[in-house]
Design brief:
By secondary structure, the protein is mainly α. It has 4 helices and no strands.
Amino acid sequence: MKISAIRQWLKQANQYATEVYNAPYRSAIARAKREEDDLFMLLVFSEAMGVPNPAAYYTLELQPLMLERFHAWHQRMGMEHSPLDGFRCC
């Protein structure tokens, strides 16, 4: 009984130490992930916006999957309205 209580306490202490150690890096990791997602969205929709894309053949089938996040992305990039002529999301 006592060994299981000690193990439980050590497990909780380990979780707490991990959270304390990772706390300063959370914002940097989230920012890096957001920038990577923005670059990927630009790659997927670049051909539709008139920017030549050498990987357009491969990214074309990803556009329907990414349309759900397109509105938040173009507003985060500073575009008030959708840059796509045939697609209005605002």
